[in-house]
Write a structure and sequence with these properties.
It contains 14 helices and two strands. The chain is mainly α. The chain has a domain of about 240 residues: Ribonucleotide Reductase, subunit A (Orthogonal Bundle). The protein has a two-stranded antiparallel ribbon with strand order 1-2. The structure holds fe (ii) ion (2 copies). The site of one fe (ii) ion (FE2) has 5 residues, from helix 7 and helix 8. Keywords: Fatty acid biosynthesis, Fatty acid metabolism, Iron, Lipid biosynthesis, Lipid metabolism, Metal-binding, Oxidoreductase.
Length: about 350
Amino acid sequence: MPPDTLIDRPPTPAGLLSNREKDRLIERGFLGLYRWYTARSQETRNWNPDKSFDWRAMNKALPPEIITVIQGFFAVEQYAPDFTSNLIHLVRRSHGRSHFQMRWGSEEEKHADAWENAVLFSGQRSPQWIADYKDRLKSQTWELPFPDAIHNLVYTVFQERATQLNYLNMMKIAQGRSDKPQFQGVQDAVLAKVAQTIAVDEAAHYNFFLEGVRMYLYYYPEQTLKAIQNVIGQFSMPAATLIPDWQQFQETVYRAGIYGPRDFQRDVMQVAFRNMGIESRKALEHGIRKTREVPDFDGGNFKTTAIWDTFDYGQVEGDVKRLHVKIQDYEKDIGFDLYDPTGFVENPEMPRPQVQAADD
Ligand SMILES: [Fe+2]
Ligand SMILES: [Fe+2]
């Protein structure tokens, strides 16, 4: 340890985890999760945007609104290189997270190619039109919505869930299950399969980022809850400001019953909240207001009381423990456990209802 660290930083109180130790634990969790994820991705979701679909059989008479929506899906996904490079830079010091972002990028790249194929094989856009559109899109660069890693991680949880929902609702239309009168009799088995295949990827992405946020919630509850509050306060879909016909896309998506503000509230925010042990947006805001910050030790590690009432930390702890069991099973399967097994470490800051701390 460099000598200045000893002078500038008071030591972590006995029995608590230092930030450095917390960061190490989160990093180990990400690395184990990334390894598990990659193996599973290759085993179960190794599809190809050209060869996994019978493109020639795509419906050539889809309603124009459907084409507008597919085109918008393509427009967002084709920023995959920007999404990936920006996020990799942000987390480049983390093995688990930076390697994951490359894997994630390779999956997002397939989504862009599959949606482009869908636009082409709809028969309603010429190759020249697609090339010009792509040129216009690529003249702009996507930038990170937030400057730091934790906010971007939280943002991605909501964004992946919202994207999954968009695709599932498109699948429903293509399967002829929409209740909108304009889509009665519309069917396209190829489009339904594309939307479903990509939605499964988005669900896997959602889960990866969700597990990451849970680890942060567990070890850094206060900072993470504040990040969640900030992100939902200004959430919009990625690249909304870059896509030239965004307004028309958004209105079409809304009128088609695919995605709108109510869907975000009910099927994105509420679902993600439940998965993070947060009861509601109101409860989150109330809890954060109540939290009295007492600067305590180790540069920005705060000891607070109210924070633990803001969310169901018991649920989050159970989820983080389950994640570690999953990682340990994977490590045993490979033999990593013989060398350096990943272990779950309890956060001692968490108040335990049964056990009264003797040194309080
Ligand atoms: Fe995607
Ligand atoms: Fe995704």
